[in-house]
Structures are given as structure tokens and as C-alpha cells.
Amino acid sequence: MRAVVIRSFGGPEVLEVVETALPQPGPGQVRIKVAAAALNPVDAAFRAGFMGPLGPDGTLGLGYDVAGTVDAVGVGAQFAPGTAVVGLSYGPAALKTHAEYVVLDASAVAKAPTTVDEVHAATLPLNSLTAAQALDLTGLKAGDSLLITGAAGALGGYAVQLAHRAGITVTALARPGDEQFVRSLGADHFAPDTRAVAPGSLDGVLDAAVLGPAALELVRDGGTYTGVIPGTAPAAARGIRVAEVEVSADGARLGELSALVDEGVLTTRVAATYPLGEAAEAHAKLAGGGLRGRLVLVP
Predict the structure, then answer these.
(1) Which residue among 21, 107, 119, 165 sits deepest, i.e. has the most Cβ atoms within 10 Å of its Cβ?
(2) 2-124+268-298 belongs to which homologous superfamily?
(3) For the chain, how long is the longest CA-to-CA vector?
(4) Residue range 127-244 in CATH 3.40.50.720
């Protein structure tokens, strides 16, 4: 099968599409025939060498998100071959989802939504799980106020929709041209930058744009700040509880989020698709920024 790997760190030019052996599922695992796999900033971070060393064999696979069909199962895996699924491949591995097949723990897999195609379904796992788990960390409840920075992005957009569903009053921070869009997701208020929000006026912030101290300043004394990239949160101040989400693969939670797509609560967004063999071009496009939705590789 074909898979995207790197043998050195650098720009998109270090990506290689190689022929490798078909992986076999072990106990509690499933093999997925990949129909689509989203490209996320974390993949670019791995490629650039920010996320750890290469594997023992000198290579590293890429790809966190996957949508496809269960192709083979290991002992104890509770998915039948032929089941349409989505899944999350978390952390470094020799082979990940930017490939024709991938093996995942069944606990990281859920049934795919039925109301969107596989390309759109592939944008769900990493960003929706991160948004849901970050909202958990805020500890906010219905009636509380929350600022979501980067609200028009893939992660921020899911966070807006999930917070709105929970009854939280959402202020969305995004570019001026995105105001109508984030309001369509359920934002109650809009801010084009941090200067548009009164300091200390909010119960919490979910900092998807990684603004750090500028976002913390907007939280009331004793409120909550939640970061989305481990190691980037600002120091706590004024009794504010500072936390950082590190997403975990959770098939049960992913199944709930998949159902929310079918209910119309969550909106999947695709910026463009690329063949697997054009992974380098997709990485270059991601590096250019300005995307609304995810780039998706299609084997």
C-alpha cells in the first residue's frame, strides 16, 4: 500500500509517498481502508520536527484524522468489516492515516455520520474531540460567558457550536469578514480583536488562536482559561484557573459528535481535496494560511 512518511524534518519537500506492507490489526484493533484523511496543523508540526524525533527505523507517518471502511478486525474489536467509520490516530507512529490503510485501536473509532460524505467526515475527529474536551476543561455551564478565539477555524467553529448547544453565551473572536459565519454557528457576540472585549468581563476563554496573555486579560478574577496546545498557556493570574487540553482518542465521545453532525448541530467544512500523491502540495497550501475548512487527502 502507499503511505505518506518523512525521513527528515523540513518543509513540504521532505514528504515521501512510499510503498509499504499492509498493516495487520492486533487484538482490539481494526484496519480501515482509508477513503479520506484530513490535513491538520499538527501534521505540519510533525513534518517540521516540533513534535519529537523520527521513529526507530528513521521514518515517521503523518495523519491524525480518518474516514473510511473497516477492512479487517482483530480479536475483540467490536466493529464488523464493511462498517463506515471515523477515527483518530493520536501521537507518533510509523504509519498513520495519510495512507491507503491504517490500523487503529477500536476504542479510537466510531461509526461515521450518515449525512455527509467521507471527505467531510474526515474533518471531524481531531478538531471536534479537541473542542469537546477543551469545553469540558472550562467547567462552564449554561448561562456562563465564554470567549472563543480563532472562532472561524476548524477547532474554533466546533467549539462555538458545542458551547452554544450547552447554553453558554459565546463571544466569537475572528476576522471581521467572518462575523456572519461565526454568528451562523451560534455565537451571541462578535469581536474582531481583543480590544473589542472589556478586560475581565468574561467567565472564561477557550483560546483556539493561542493568543495567551491577551486572552487571559479578558477573563474575570477567578474565571477560567483553556489552551489548546500543551505548553503554550500563560501563567495563571488573578485566581484564574489555567488549563490546557491534550486531546485523547475517545471512540465513544467521537460517536456522540458524529451523531451531532447528523442532527445538524455540528458543521463539517472542507477547503479542498488532494490526491494522496500530492501531499506536499497540500502541505504547501496549508502553510499559506487563510483556509476556512480542512484540506483533505484522498487515496
Answers:
(1) 119
(2) Medium-chain alcohol dehydrogenases, catalytic domain (3.90.180.10)
(3) 57
(4) yes
Q: Report the 10 Å Cβ neighbour count for 10.
A: 11
Q: What is the mean pLDDT of each run of 10 residues along the chain (299 residues)?
A: 97 97 97 98 95 91 98 96 97 95 98 98 98 98 98 97 98 96 98 97 98 97 96 95 96 98 98 97 94 94
CB count within 10 Å of CB 246 equals 13
C-beta separation of 291 from 31 below 8 A? no
CB 286 within 8 A of CB 44: yes
CA–CA separation, 70 vs 133, rounded Å?
Answer: 26
- For the chain, the structural domain boundaries read 2-124+268-298, 127-244
Residue whose entry in the numeric block shows the C-alpha cell 491504517: 102
Q: Which cell numbers in the block locate residue 132?
A: 469537546
Provide DSSP, 177-225: GGHHHHHHHT-SEEESSGGGS-TT-EEEEEETT--THHHHTTEEEEEEE
Identical topology for domains 2-124+268-298 and 127-244: no
> Distance of CA 194 to CAs 81, 186, 262, Å?
49, 19, 34
CA-based nearest residue to 203, from 148, 162, 150: 148
**Global pTM?**
0.96
Specify the 3-state DSSP secondary structure of 39.
Answer: strand
For position 290, what pLDDT does the model report? 81
